[in-house]
């Protein structure tokens, strides 16, 4: 390779395919949506410039405000439930025992199924008359899981957890295996038990992985769509209508593409803001190594 | 102040679609090759009835120089996909729709061909159909559609065995219904199965009670933009009846977790866990498919009960009046299209529809009812539809599509008690009407 390319750093050409792809399929549509959010368009006649109409309506729309809170709530619940679960599973699965390898493989199965299939499956399992709730009335009462906000949200969180915990478990498994054994050996000599080792060695060593996994959860949570579409359709009423689903309703049920674009853009802004906050708070941007001093 | 600005359409279309990460790809198969040739493209909702449509197309193509090509869009996304292609180059010449609000936006956008000139030339194009059905596709006094499938009135279905055990008869009046609810509850069954999770089954109770209590005029007023209609005493009286029924425990408590579309509520009826279900006439074929024995022996049906002191005629019905063929203005072969539409009241059409369990709404249907898949059921429906002074098109199809989601949400919330009467009235008043 010629030295004109710089000190071993690839030139722009190397990034071009990915950059063009990203530009064409992410940046350009984003700009279009931004433009469309200032227009009134039903998909039939030509879009008409509507100024700030869509935005004004959106900010006055109680369902929109509610949908943002619901998105945040679902995301938070997802993080709170999945993180401890996947850390424990991941660290446990990091052991090289054979039974752990076999069980980890089984735990990974939900990840291989499509979200739609999983949602349809759980909808059937949780049917009030012909599913599990009908057999376990001591736990589910009348089985009206999809008819009340609290239980409908519970179902959504549960199904997402069931589906996505394996992914995060995988992240933690890899990270836990990368923790240098010398740390545990030293701790053992100092007389630290398993629990102390976990809290003083494993957890701190997983710091960067926790942040990675949490960002994935936040992004995934804010853009959740399939599970809501299949499990609750935003119901009862608008009680599980999260922003992404509300955008879908506006665009493909009401054919109000202007309003839908405004929601889409708002969602992009909110997600970016939340990602920035997570990155700042966690110090992820500084990428402090967990290997210092080793 | 509103300024007008034009955006590059195709780019915007592509952009919006991509950004929302949903495939908008229209019906499969390249339709570009056939453009401009001597063909008419007919777009229909893809399901079991396509069998009849294919037969008719074959009949038409035998004699016509201009050939019909049938395209189908399967599944529930028909309306969304139609909306996307109808103003594009791939737009069909003739397309399936539900009349009313489902074509209103296309009429407003000037895309549809008024059929009145066709009718002037060939009066049978209107005279051969039951008027209460034909009127669903008349918009602002102009005809835009010809009925092309079967009618689907909403009926009160029942499980005869369960009724017998509880000593209950299909209700003729509202008080009968309330008494039946009480008796059935005492007998330990859910009086009425309801797929509240789908929301549109809940709507049917509103449609009938508003009709019986206030007459069809109230809804028409509301649809025409009269803000006072929803807040009127009659409207509140109808809502009171709904509250009364729900609070009496007629639907049990978990109806919002039950769906019709996943066979939930039909199975409740068929297995005797519930006694009644208010549903479109397709309940019959649904039960025949899923529970053939029950459909054969115990599945009963009756018209919706009357309400004492109500203004609506007890013979009124609600539901899907029919499906319609509408024609795009830009079609190159209006004459051939008119010829094709004439097949929609032919004997062949009627026999084929009856044969697969649909009930056509042409005046010559009566003569063929004995050939129907289920003659008794077909006759019952036909008499009902023919005698009905008004046939109210489902509210969510009569209103513009932009209203449907909010309408469904509000109905569900009032029904399950999470929204009070005043809030419901306000929500309905806020719906877009045109």
UniProtKB/TrEMBL annotation, chain A:
GO annotation, cellular component aspect: plasma membrane
Keyword Manganese: no
Keyword Nucleotide-binding attached: no
Source species, domain of life: Bacteria
Domain named ABC transmembrane type-1: residues: 68-278
Segments crossing the lipid bilayer: 12-39, 68-93, 105-125, 145-164, 210-231, 257-279
Record-linked InterPro entries: ABC_transporter_permease, MetI-like, MetI-like_sf
Keywords assigned: Cell membrane, Membrane, Transmembrane, Transmembrane helix, Transport
Pfam families (UniProt xref): BPD_transp_1
Membrane topology: Multi-pass membrane protein
SUPFAM superfamilies xrefs: MetI-like
Gene3D superfamilies for the chain: MetI-like (1.10.3720.10)
Single GO biological process annotation from the record: transmembrane transport
Subcellular location: Cell membrane
Major localization class: membrane
Family per record: Belongs to the binding-protein-dependent transport system permease family.
Protein name: ABC transporter
Automatic annotation (TrEMBL), chain B:
Signal sequence residues: 1-28
Origin: domain of life: Bacteria
Keywords: Signal
PANTHER family associated with the record: ARABINOSE-BINDING PROTEIN-RELATED (PTHR43649), BLR3389 PROTEIN (PTHR43649:SF14)
Protein name, as recorded: Xylobiose transport system substrate-binding protein
Lineage: Bacteria, Bacillati, Actinomycetota, Actinomycetes, Kitasatosporales
